[in-house]
Amino acid sequence: MLRSQMNEQKTQKMIKISIYIAVSVNGMISNRRNVPDWLSPEYGQGFMEICQKTKAVIMGRTTYDIIAPDYLPLQQEGTTVVLTTDERAKSGNPTVIFTKDKPAEIAEMLAKKGHTEAVIIGGTVTMSAFINGELVDDIYFIMEPVLFGSGLPLLKNVEFESKLSLLAVTKLNNNTVQLHYKIQKEV
Question: What residues does the Bacterial bifunctional deaminase-reductase C-terminal domain cover (predicted)?
Fold first, then answer.
């Protein structure tokens, strides 16, 4: 086994990475307007709870631009990692780190900072990169009762294949359901 593969497997054991994402019933994570006006209050509550629990949040730059600065889940403590190629990106929030590092490097950095778990809250490129890197342990799908004719898909260019094991189904309100799946990893 190559040294990099061994290091990646070691990193996977050091930190648990979850995805927490709202999706339309046809698998979109954003409408074409890129406005989150379709999300239920229950999604927002769960979003804040999981971010506060993990104290380590990973997101893409578009997600950051939509929620910053007022709705960043970690305002004073923890680590917020934003994937971007913009080396000049800056934030007034002390938790925010902008990086163009690869997913395994981000997982290792978070583990070195003492985090044992992290949550990815969006977007398509970020989630796809971590899934392709086989770094995601479980996924929370919050199924919102909407259909989008066009928008941003859940995943793109994913090469990784795995079965999922259903851990829990939670009805969040009269129309919204949370599905919690564990990604089955080969041993």
Answer: 17-176
* Separation of alpha carbons 130 and 127, rounded Å: 5
Q: Which helix (H) or strand (E) holds 46?
A: helix 41-54
What's this model's pTM, rounded to 2 decimal places? 0.91
Q: Give the C-alpha separation, 69 to 162, whole Å.
A: 36
Determine the structural domain holding residue 107 and report its residue range.
3-183
Structurally, the chain folds into a number of domains equal to 1
Q: Are the C-beta atoms of 52 and 121 separated by less than 8 Å?
A: no
Q: How far apart are CA 149 and CA 26, in angstroms?
A: 9
pLDDT tens digits for 58-80? Answer: 999 999 999 999 999 999 999 99
Q: The CATH number of the domain where 34 resides is what?
A: 3.40.430.10
Residues 6+ apart with CB under 8 A from 11: 104, 107, 108, 111, 135
